[in-house]
């Protein structure tokens, strides 16, 4: 199993976040950069347009994409799109980006605070997973399994824009994000709030499918190649592995996440 894979960065805003329990600020926005979030692709942009919490600043569309938006009754009343040739978007994103005629510039979404996490269901915690493709795929799985939130670090994590947003295929609009400065401290606070914290690692002492699970459940995944950092492992309530019958015993972190979520959701009775 590999709970090992690069990390995610949903950076924060310039406003001063509130402090909790006398510790460092936990609440941040998903980006900490001056420029807007760049969103492209059909699902990514249309779900952003439908999200009342997402402020779209500019929308660039091709004629074909505009026609499709109109055919599917996508609400554009609050925004006047700029119709451009596909090559204009290609020049902005690069020739390999599959934009489907849609590109939006948007404000970052607000992030939750640790204290605001729901006391039920499953939360994912990402320990310095840096690859935006993997983080986007994890967000898609999180949306599919109705994960309550994703907790990630302010550093060593990709920005919630561009490739990550495209890979998430709209899941950025569906899964709340918590950004923390210190992951071990955040895990400790989650445990104080009643969370069962289970780290996933190929060297875990127990098989996740045989581990006693309860809600609220936090599944903690580490960077591919490095796995969970030592302090993260020590802070988790337990460390489990994903046992598999085949010759290959490890998975990409995004695949491991999907499997762990299926096991967790099944054990918690969330698959009904």
Topology record:
Layout: E1 37-40, H1 42-50, E2 56-61, H2 63-71, E3 82-83, H3 86-93, E4 102-106, E5 122-127, H4 132-144, E6 149-153, H5 162-168, E7 177-180, H6 183-192, E8 196-200, E9 206-207, E10 217-222, H7 230-235, E11 238-241, H8 253-267
DSSP helix fraction: 25-40%
Globally, the shape reads elongated
Neighbour order of strands in the largest sheet: 7-6-5-10-8-11-9
Q: Structural class of the secondary structure composition?
A: alpha/beta
The mean pLDDT is 87
Strand content is 15-25%
The quaternary state of the protein chains shown equals single chain
CA-CA gap between termini: 26 Å
Please give the count of helices.
8
How many β strands by DSSP?
11
Spans of at least 5 consecutive residues whose pLDDT stays below 50 are 1-33
Radius of gyration: 19 Å
Provide the succession of SSEs.
EHEHEHEEHEHEHEEEHEH
Largest sheet: 7 strands, parallel
Offer a concise description of the structure.
The chain has 272 residues and is α/β, with parallel strands linked by helices. The protein has helices at 42-50, 63-71, 86-93, 132-144, 162-168, 183-192, 230-235, 253-267, and strands spanning 37-40, 56-61, 82-83, 102-106, 122-127, 149-153, 177-180, 196-200, 206-207, 217-222, 238-241. The protein is elongated.
Structure overview:
- This protein is 28% helix and 18% strand.
- With 272 residues, it is α/β, with parallel strands linked by helices.
- Strands 7-6-5-10-8-11-9 form a 7-stranded parallel β-sheet, with helices on both faces. A 4-stranded mixed β-sheet has the order 1-4-2-3.
- The protein starts with 36 loop residues before the first strand and ends in a 5-residue tail after the last helix.
